[in-house]
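Reproducibility note. Readers wishing to regenerate the assembly model reported in the main text can use the exact inputs given here. Chain order matters: entities are listed in the order in which they were concatenated for prediction.
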Amino acid sequence: MTDSPLPAVRAVGAGTRKRPGFWRGLRRLPLIPIFVLVVLLIVPALSADWLAPHDPVRGSIPDRLKPPVFFGGTWEFALGTDRLGRDILSRLMHGAKVSLSISLVGILAGGVLGTALGLIAGYFRGLADAIIMRLVDISMALPSILLALVLAVTAGPSFQTIIVVVTFVLWALYARQVRGEVLSIRERDFVARARVAGASDFRIIVRHILPNAANTIIVLATLQVGSVILLEAGLSFLGVGIPRPTPAWGLMVADGRQLIVSAWWIAFFPGLAITLAVFALNLLGDWMRDKLDPRLKEV
Amino acid sequence: MRSPSAPPALEVRDLETRIDTKLGLIKAVDGVSFSVEHGKTLGIVGESGSGKSITALSILRLVPKPAAYIAKGQVLLDGEDLLEKSENEMRKVRGKRISMILQDPQTSLNPVFSVGFQVVEAIGLHADSRRKALLRRAVEALRRVRVADPERRVDDFPHQMSGGMKQRVVGAIALGSFPRVLIADEPTTALDVTIQAQYLRLLKDIQAETGLSIIFITHDFGVVARMCDKVAVMYAGRVVEYGPVRQIFNSPAHPYTKALLNSVPAIEEDVDRLYSIKGQPPAFWDMPEGCRFEPRCDVAMQRCKTEYPAKFARAAAESGGHCANCWALEEPEWIPSRF
Amino acid sequence: MDSEPVLKLKEVTKYYPVTKGLLFARTIGHVRAVDRVTLDLDQGETLALVGESGCGKTTTAKLILRQETPTSGKLEFEGQDVHRITGAALKQYRTDVQAVFQDPWSSLNPRMRVFDIVSETLVVNHAVAKGEVADRVAKVLSDVGLRTEQSRNFPHEFSGGQRQRIAIASALISEPKLLVLDEPVSALDVSIRSQIMNLFKDLQDLYRMSYLMVAHDLGTTRYMAHKVAVMYLGQLVELAPTRSLFEAPLHPYTQALFSAALPSHPDIEREEIILEGEVPSPIDPPSGCSFHTRCPLKIGEVCEKETPELTPRPDDSQHHVACHLYTREPSRSPGDGEGKRV
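Running the prediction on these inputs yields the following structure tokens for the assembly.
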């Protein structure tokens, strides 16, 4: 068989079959992104209070601007210290907590609001749909940074402000996506069947439509953790996010930027953390989409 | 036109197509053989999952890659094995020597181009030809498939046409470069009864005019009765019965064919109770070891459970190559057949 | 027949407005989806609505299922106006009238277990005591040939035929008097169709249900239906007992439709009546008889001007046809020539 267009008959049967489901499933998990996220975000966020070697907020001036351990520093401050002598590693760990909690709370708030409005718009159509979708258009037209600046100036930068901004940015995405999904689900015959049986609108939405839109919502949420971390970092960098001295990754990058030449590690490590976390989250989100989106299923 | 010894227009020999699925490697097409003579129509009948559509795609080497691949066999177009050709050579075969019409005209046409453009593109004329000449070719192609008022319709977009009209345009595209073989994969399933009748009539007329060979893939014995000269009945990836259409209808040999024919309600007569085949087709990853129809078969024997039935051909000379794979045919009128 | 019909449609009409403009939509016309349809359905009887896409058969089914409200006319179920009932009577209607849809891949919620799918009608209408639900589910599952244990599974674990059985079970659970069957076998595999058709027939014998079946396949119609209504452009053109319709179709459209049906044997050669053109737009249907634009047997001006009424044949009072051929002597005015014949 020289140069045959046919693939040579591959090893058939053995090997590809009969692997227990659990191990097959595990093998297909995106292990690297999960590992990165566990090490970078989840473990630090959960354990920062006990495991962080130093106080993230109070530094000691004598220890200021210590370089990381392999660049002339010591193991005491493994990733170096900042201008105020605060341990970068400790601040990164506490920063993970901040990033994770903002993402989770923001996505939850935006997701719930957006999903609810998307369900209403898609299911009832008509006036409700028109109003909600115009609100979505408006909200998507407003630059989030500008909104955050206004909010920060009027209400002052705080955890709550960030949550409000995140919610405001996210809800419209959910509303739009969920609405589209609902529009197709409501045409399926099981919805017609439920109507024939006399099911209430509430029951149809909760039992028939929402569960079938759940995959879309979960995938969207996963994909958004990364962008929320980026948004929070951006806002904090601009000084309208998490107020000092709370350790937030974006804020740490902002703090380090004047000293980027002399003490590069102050900005470098939080920047690296943001990049790795967002990258891993996007990989995970793509995997979830492939896994859960019924349109991509099967051969 | 051609001497009887000339090779058939298309012959498929022992074709095997495998698909790598989540549930393991399956043989979607498992040792399928058939042939179509010049100017004749072969029907491939089967249910969903019988492998009939994958067979069609395999002929054109269009199986979904990389999951599916053709593992063995031959597809002989006028004696040339298509499976030996390079991808580049194949491109000169598809749409030119063998064309295909798919079930849903909705998805076969591109909504953003006019039908004329799509016909011209398919005929393979290059943009440097003069516009007028191109237009004339497109109009001709549309006229061939009896699109009324083709001069005007040529500028229409697909959404301006009805389903039946769109399927005609698909036909015009498929027949645009005068192929010798047309593979029609359930082209009328999405159409209304009267539109279907018109379309089938059209295909027959074109066949009579051009000597086209047609492979008609369908689940509908009515389509077979109207259109086909020969029939291959597929079940679970294999051809279980093969022969001239009247043989199949008058004296079906395989229990599956018999059961299918008895389970379809006729419009010509009242039936008190239809035969119904018990159970459902086997899943590819859970194939019976012996005959694949055995679990649903009324006349199954012990042997059917363990051994796939040999092929038997009807002994009578006038049977036209009628054969079936069933152990119940081990009787004098049937002789074991190698091929 | 002896008893009062279960379902009566009287001059039922459904128009859909056709609107133009995105922001300030204005109505530019109406789609006549269903136009003055009158018919009866008796207990234990199957009536098939046949016709091509857009003929209004599905809209008629939707009107019966209260998914649409009629523009005019009235639907009566056991003497009550279907679109006026409220409260307890409405709950009763929703248990008395159930539906089985075409595509069992779309009609079962993939996120619900079979038990919840099948019992839904009972649950939402609080039709029976909680303790009784499980028994009823078990009973209907066995009625349709499924096992009780299978009620814990999800729809994707079943094949197409089994899924349709689940859909039938869920329609049966409230012990309905009328089942609306919307192309109930056309999405199924050939070897499964007769199973399901026979199941419908057995269930009808068992429970004396009436079926209103929407179908486009004439073989299925002949096998399943006692009575057939042929629709064209929203109107009933012929209504007759199945046998007399299939043996002697009267309306030119019915004749054309039947002649186009595929034969059950290669030796059956039918004289094919090829209709000219396509079905006209229902937005602006032809005047008079809506079939006159394509009719091969058109008599003359009367077909263009007067709408033929559905009238019983003198020799067979069950066989109704709406065609001028049968209501008056063919009178040809000199101007408009002879009827086209193919």
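We highlight two features of this model. The two ends of chain A are 28 Å apart (CA to CA). Chain A has a mean pLDDT of 80.
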